[in-house]
Structures are given as C-alpha cells and as structure tokens.
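Homework help thread (please don't just give me the answer)

Our assignment gives two proteins as sequence + structure token strings and asks us to describe the second one. The first is just a warm-up. Here they are:
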Amino acid sequence: MSGFSIERLPFEREAVNTWSRNSGQHTDWPVVYVIDGERARRQPALYVGETVNAASRMRQHLAGNKQHEGLESIRVVIDETYNKSVCLDLESHLIRWFHGDGQYSILNGNDGLSNARYYDREIYRESFRDVFEALRTEGLFSRSIPQIENTDLFKLSPFKALTDDQAIAIEDIVEGLLADLQHPDTRSTLVVQGDPGTGKTIIAIFLMKLLADIRDYSDIDDVEADSMFAEFFTPENRELLRDLKMALVIPQQSLRQSVKQVFKKTPKLDPKMVLTPFQVGESDAEFDLILVDETHRLNQRANQASGVQNKKFGQINERLFGADDQRYTQLDWIKARSKHQLLLIDGAQSVRPHDLSPAVLERELRHAATDHRHFRLTTQMRVQAGADYVEYIRAMLRGERPPRPALGEYDLRLFDDLGEMRQAIRERDVEVGLSRLVAGYAWDWKSRRDPQAFDIEIDGERMRWNSTDKDWINSPGSLEEVGSIHTVQGYDLNYAGVIIGSDMRVDADLGEIVASRDDYRDKKGKENTGHLKDAFGDDDLLVFIRNIYGVLLTRGMLGTYVYVCDPGLRALLSS
C-alpha cells in the first residue's frame, strides 16, 4: 500500500492557483502536505498539515499568517487510498519525526495529535515509512527513523499522541487553570501521580506548549475541530493567558539539560523556562504557573551537595519566610514564588534522605484529592510489557514472590556471568541503539579523580562509572561505561543491563532482603540528614536502595537484563 506520489510547487499564490486546476484531487481529496523554507529565519522552518481541499488550504496559509512568512516550497502527499483518518495519522507521524530530527523549527501547534484506530492502520503505518524515505531523499530528514526515535528530542517532544489518561488529565488541568485565572487572588496546587514510564515529564512539556499555543492562537490558525483541546482555542482564553509567566522546575541536572535542548528546538518554548529549584528560590519574579517534574527529588532543609548550596538554602529561607527554619523545603519556595503549581510525583522514586519526605508527599496528594486536583496516570508508555511489569519488579524488590506476569515479547533475562550480559548489551546497541549498563551505587567512584582507574570489577570485567553527569546516555563512550541512578532517572533506554550490587542482599539467617550500609557507597545517600536526622536506620536505607533499583529496572523499553552480585539474592530472584 505505497502508491503515493509527492507533488511539489512554490509557496506562492499564482503557483497554487495554477496547480489547483491540474487535478480534482487538488481541491477535493484527503492529502497531507509539508511547507518548508528558511528565508529570514535563524533556523529552517516547516509546517505539516492535512486537508481535503489542498488548494484552498494553501491560500489560507498565504493569506497573511506571519508565522508562515519565509516559507518557500510545498510538498503534497497524494494517494488514492487515503482517507481522513489515514491523513491525520500520517500528519501526526511526520510532525513527531520532523521535531525529533531537529533540522527544522516546527510551526505546528500541539492541540492533540491523532492516535485513533482505523481500518488497516498497521498496513498504512508501514507505508508511512516509504513517505518518510521519499522526503528524506529530498533532504527534509537528516537521519533514519530508528535514529530519530532514539533521540531525547523525539522522546521528550511536546508533539505527542497522548494516552487516554494523559489527555483527560491535561484537559482537566487546563480547564481548572483557566477557571482559576479568572480570579487573580486564587491559588492552587494540582498533582499528577504515576509510576515510571507513565509519561509524567511528557505531561509537563505538552502542557506548556499547549498553553503557549492557546495564548498565541490566531483566528486563521487551523485547529482540528474534533481535537480534544479545540474548545480551549478561544479569544477569551487567549486574553486570560496573554501575560502568563510559567516555568518548569527539574531537580536532576542531566534531565534538565535534555529538556532545555527540547525547548531550544520548540517554537514558543525557551530554555530559560527550565529552572533549578535554587533559581526559583533566588528569583524576584512572581510566576503564574510552575510545573515541577520529579517533585519527589526536591530537597528539604538537609545537608546539600556543597557548602555553597547549604548557604544558599538558608539565605533563600530567610528571604522568603523571614527565618531559616528546618521545616521549609524547596517545595515551599515554589509555592511562595507561584500562584499555581503542577506537581508530578512518584514517591517510590525518592532515592536520598534529603529528598522530600514521604509525609510531605502524602500531604500534597491528600490535599489535591480533597480539592479534586489529583490526577492518576496508569497507562505504561515506556516498558512494552506494561504496568504489570512495573508492579512485578517493585513486588520482587519488596521481598515478595509475585507470579511472573505475561510479558509478551519483552526480553527480561537474569545473567550469571557479567561478561555475557555486557556483550549482550553491546549486541542490542548495534541492533536497536540506546542500550546501556546501569548499576546501584555499590562501588566507589575512583575514576572521578583518576580517569585511568576502574570502579567496578566483577567476573574479570573492569568498568568505569559514567564520565559525565550531563546527557550521559548519548555521550561518547557511554556504551562501555556504567550509569548511576542520577544519569538515567527520567530517561528511556531500549535495553537496560542492570547490575544489582552487594548493597542489597539476602540475610542468610532471616531469609529476607536487607540493605548493606557498608556496601552502599553514596555518601549523600546515607547521611543522617533531613527528616531522618538521628533516626536513619537500615530499614530506611533499604527503602532508598529498593527505589533506586526500581528505577533502574524500569528504564528498558524492549528489555531488561539483570546481573546480581549477592548469591542469595540471585537465587531468590531466579526462583
């Protein structure tokens, strides 16, 4: 099913008028089109659309839309087998691929890309790859589909076809926020809760782009009438959002850098909108909306990573609240600096004692539920084995013996030889890319001071920890290194090779999973600080270590390979 053709013409009124007379399909047939150009632009720009009257739609684009100034050429994809559903689907695929490729600035809004089912969808989607290759031959794409789909730009893109629970959450959030903005004195906190892989980061990025699109909406813009979000594109809402000041706070440095790159490539979003908690605390600005990704990784008043940060924490507390009281957290800074907050939370991903305490997270969840501002994500987007796999992993780490769920084609394996697992990860990386080794923090980081030193030595295999903490997954040499929790939390891999160190083992006498404080080498991860000050027992440490492995074991989309150092734990998991 690949009998398509691509017709080309200049993005000019006279050319469109001439073209419109050449065929009935130019004025009365479902088509997909691409308009691109680079005149008077910092980066080449591109718009993807679908219509049943291509000539009329081109005239609309030419009728003074400032956003389309500088566009030069049109390509129209025509196939006699296409219908409206196929065109919506192809349009969605092309927008996502173009944005993930990063070669063009994408001028489309994200009022809701189609992921609807229709007759012969899988057959049509195979033919989309032929359309992609035809456009790639003409220079519109610089990379292959697998290369594009392995990029952070693709994975973290605001141009997503949302799951049902994501779409419902965003619709309710926008509805509530617009209602609140009509009352300037109203303050609110909304909470989105979800397990790993349910798309919490996507919710934040998508929502910021959607609000910016509504704010900048022009009456001649083409918003799909049956889009879930079409009702928000009104002059009244545009006025409500006109001066909206929003920011996205991401506690982890690595993920923050990746999201900044996405914002850099996305019109209406700006890398300066992505902030650290300290930048919010030190800011003089009053934000209308602050979204917080990985809220569970915000800090309480505890020993920070450096003396400078300890000093800053106290100064910010004094500036905002008049005193450096231990009860004030980075979440309090965000609430003091914004009228509305959207908190994205998974309490089972807290990994250090200075992360927000379970009591604080529980309070936010309880208040949000009471105010009907609590949204739950359940659809698993990352791991192909689905939500059952995530719960299976977490139950095993709790020491339970859950039955192995049906995993379909998901590749879950336990290795007895680390060299074999390492080689398998290399082979998967050749096949599909984005395959990496990761491990719990059970080895000293010697190579940080001595680049020639090895950190991890097992079964004759010698390896080093990640050589960078910024975008490690995509850095040169990462395939031969081992990533820590701080480099992969919030990211997707195709395959994850997880080394479970001796920091988690089975006690021979009790027959239970326990933490080994001596083998856990993250000094900041076992300090007597924060809510655990003077009461940080081994059971508390086990919670953090379990959470770390829970994150590591849910990074792989296609498969997870596991090597366990402790013989007792290996026997327990293999059973």
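The one we have to describe:
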Amino acid sequence: MDYRREIDGLRALAVLPVILFHAGFEAFGGGFVGVDIFFVISGYLITTIILAELEQGKFSIVNFYERRARRILPALFLVMLICIPFAWFWLLPSDMKDFSQSLVAVSGFASNILFWRESGYFGTAAELKPLLHTWSLAVEEQYYVIFPLFLMLFWKLGKRWMLVTLGLVFVASLVLAQWAAYAKPTAAFYLLPTRGWELLIGAFAAFYLSQANRKAFGKGLSEFGGWLGVALIIYAIFAYSNTTPFPGFYTLVPTLGTVLIILFATQQTTVGKFVGNKAFVGIGLISYSAYLWHQPLFAFAKHSSLTKPSSLVYGVLAVLAIVIAYFTWKYVEAPFRDKSKLTRKQVFSLSLIFSFTFVSVGLLGYLNSGNLWRFDDGVVKYFELKNDSDIYVWDLKKRLRKSSFNSEKIKILVIGDSNSGDLINVLNFVNLDEYLSISSLTIYAGCGNLYLNRSKFSHFIAADSLKDCAGVDDLLDDENKDLIRQADKVIFASSWSDWEVDLLEESYQNLISDYGDKFWFFGNKHLDFSPIDFIRLNGGASFPSSVLLSTDKAKINAKLRDLLGDRFVDPYLSFCEDEVCRLLSDSGDLLLYDGFHLSREGTIYFSSKLNNFIRLLKNER
C-alpha cells in the first residue's frame, strides 16, 4: 500500500493525549480516546493490506502473523524485560504477584481479560500496574486471530456478503457496547466484543478506499470532512472525562473523527498537511514505542514514592518516554521489521523463547506470592494476612446482602461500605445467631450513605467513583425501603466524609419521619498509619504496638457525636486513649490490617469492646 503521512500524523494525535491523560493533566480528561484512534487506524491499515493481497491471490496467514510478530513483539518484549528488575526492586509482594500475573497474560495476549477481572481502568489501583496499557494490544491481537480467517473464508462469496456480515457484527458490537457501558462498564472497557466495532470502522474505510472505480472527493468536501474529523477528535480529548460512558455511542465521536481524516485528508489538502506535518509524523513513527514506555514509567514512579509524583515529574517522564521511544524505534522496531536481518524462522523462534521466559518468570512470581526471596517472613505473613482480610471484610456482608429476616429473631439491618462489613463480622463473632437476624445493604465509601435523593449529593462524589456508585443500593428503592421498614434496628456504618455529615441531619430526620426512632450510626476508625508504607520505608514488618488516630476522621466523628448524641457509636473509644490507638493485639497481631479495616484478630478484640452496644441490640426491640 502507498505510504500516507497523515496516518502517522494521526498516530501522534492518538499517543500524545493518552500519555498526557495518564500523566494526570486535567485538561486532557478525555485523552484515553487515543486508544480508540489507534483501533480505527489499525483496522484500516491491516484490512487494506489483507484486501490488496487477497486481490492479488497471495494472502498467507503465516505471512500475516509474521508481520504482526515483527511489528508488535520486539518492542513489547523489551519493555517487559526492562520492567522485571524494576518490579523486583520496587514492588511489594502483592503488587509483584499482580505484575507476575500480567507477565503471563501479556505473553498470551490476554491481559485485557486479566485487568477486567482485577479492576477498572480509571481507579488508583489500576494506575499502579506497569503493564495495564497492554490491554489494547490484547484486544487487537484477539481481533486479528478472527478477522483474517473471516476474510479468507468469505472472500469467494464476494465483498457484498462480507460487508453485510461485518455490518451485522458491527451493529451488534456497538449496541452491546452501549448497553455494557452502563450495565457492565469494566467489561465493556476491556473486552473485544464491545471494542470490535471500533476496528471494524477502520476496516470499512479500507473497503471503501480499495474500490478501483470509486470517485475522488472534491476539494471542498475533502477539506470540510478532514477538518470535521480533527474537530471531533479534539472535542473528545478535551470534553470527555473518566465519567463518560465508554465505549458506547460517545466513542463514535473520536472514531468517526478518525475515519473522516483517513477518508478525506491527503497531502493535497490543508488538513492533510496539518496532520501530516513533520512533528506529528515524527512522533507518529515512534508512537507504538512511546505508548509502551509511558505506563511503566508512570507506574514505577508511583511505586517508588510514598507521595503522588508532581506534575513536573510526570512531565519529565512523558518527555523521557518519547526519547526512549525514539531509540527503541531506531534500534529495535526498525531492525526487526527488516526481513534481510532476521528470517521468519528466527522471528518465530525468538517469539516463542521470550514468551516462554516471561510465562516462566510470571509463574515463579505468582507461585511465590510475589515475594521472590526479597522480604523477611514478617512481610510475607503480612501480605498473607492482607489477602485473607480483604476477602474476610466483605465475605459475610455480601452473603447477607438483602437477605430475608427471620421474624422470630431481632432483625438488624446494617447499611454501608466495608466498615459495615467489619461491624457485621463483629456481630457474627459474638455468636448471637439465636438472637439476631442480620441483613445488609451496600453503599460504597464516598457514595453517600444517606436516605436522600441522589441528585442532592451526586455532585460531591469523586469523578472516578461515579460509575461504581451507580451500582450501589439506593435506599429510596421500594425493595430497600421495605427492608428498612421490617428491621427492628438499622445501623449505618461508613468511612464518613465531611459532606456526608453535612447532609446527615436531613437524612436522619427523613428516616425517623418514615420509620420511627430505630437508627444507629457507627463512626470512623482510621489510623494515621499504613502498614504498606511502613514496609516500604523500613523493609520489614515489625509494626509498632500503637499509633495515632486520623485527626481528620476523628473530627468527623466529633461532628457525628454532636449531631446524633447517644445514637452514635465511636469506635475510637474502644481502642484509643488521648489520640493514641492500639495497633497490635496481645499476641502481636494487627487489629486493623490496613489502618482502617479489622483483621480476624481485630474482630475478636472489638467484639469484647462493644458489649454495651451489642447488649442494646439484643435487649431492645
């Protein structure tokens, strides 16, 4: 196919916003759409090559995968290789275990599935994953397992039938993406069925431009169409944010913008000259390597510091990613694409060797729980405790969510986030099953544990939490209101924030008005201590026996006490004195395993300290 400068320029419009978005520059809130631009470009270029070879009767699936291996694997394997020693030095066992899993998943082009199962794309946990960005490569490679085979099989039926079939797949994928962007946002973001339509948009452009008898566009139409495409991309980059439902209909804006540039921008148009200028083309040529390098640089910068890197640091790292990308392109990408320097056999052999190596290293790290002989037994035991406790906090709460009450027992409804999970575990430990019947509703931290219409407080919810908060239990739903009505006692337990407390008086009055005076509120119990940060600084897990409480959370508890009086339970009174809080049990085990959630040992300790409160629940009805 003929070289098109504007396509390389488009790559620059794709990679720069992605890098700046991940660097945290707020102006580029929609910079993640650069990945969608890449999808369309890829769909266009690959389809153009395949169609040309099918027309000439020389398409080979082996040649196709050889080209993909030369294009994708050398730079990818280099980045993975460089990441390993940095991960070994800087990642704590839990993060190293996750990284080890990602080495295996990336080697099999399944990292999108792994990251879908682990977390969303926009959360803090995701930002710490050095290979997070490889999800898009996995989507593309999964697509290219199916797409060339489809074209080969349907070629003899003619382009019309091919286009009809692809059109049906396109519509199904887009409709599924629109539904899943709201119903299953994490799956929608990461998985091929909801992303395939983006690659197909590029494929349709290739089908159109491959027509030998198509009419050329007029100068005026080409200029208008090309600049409209640029405008759509720029709009998405600066107007979208991580709260924009993706990849549904909103994704049509940057993807159609990309297609318009592909269709209309040529070097005979001003838009083609703009997109194809030397600076954009230069960055476009190294865009793949720049994309590969930026995420590990940002992630390891976060891991190497207890505080979030500054904008200056991110800016320097972004420039560094471009610089390293140039050398990677020149000395790794370009040589491996040169068939005179490496034969097909050598390419496939090296691919298998490196894949096997990364899978082996990944399995070793995973099976060693990410430790790899780097930390003492105390650290290993701590992360075993953390992994167990992360499950323990939520396990019973999830099983009791919206469970029916036993009418012969005292009916207790516990509403809130993971802190309510702690409280449920305490109630369960004291073995009051003969007295209590417990049910639960879930309101995640920061989502507003309030008996109010959500429109009154949605503007307080952090932007990166809005999607998760959309899936919590709404206390004004009839089913949930019925549970509140049935309960003898209702306990709200959360990691309370200032804005929630400010709205709590109205919420409390609404509850009393609708259901009577049967409500209790369980306060914050955060410590000014992070075991993980302590391990980072000290290299071991010899934790202090006591630490300071969180003054910010203690002030919120004081406001709750003033508002609620004897209906408020302050956990700090159970394990703190003069702002100094007990961290370890008599046997030396952590009571709050992460600084704010109870371990099993902490559950035992708190159950003995909340006797008066538990007695009230047991005796009052």
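TA reply:
I won't write it for you, but here's a hint about the kind of observation we're looking for: The first helix runs from residue 5 to 22.
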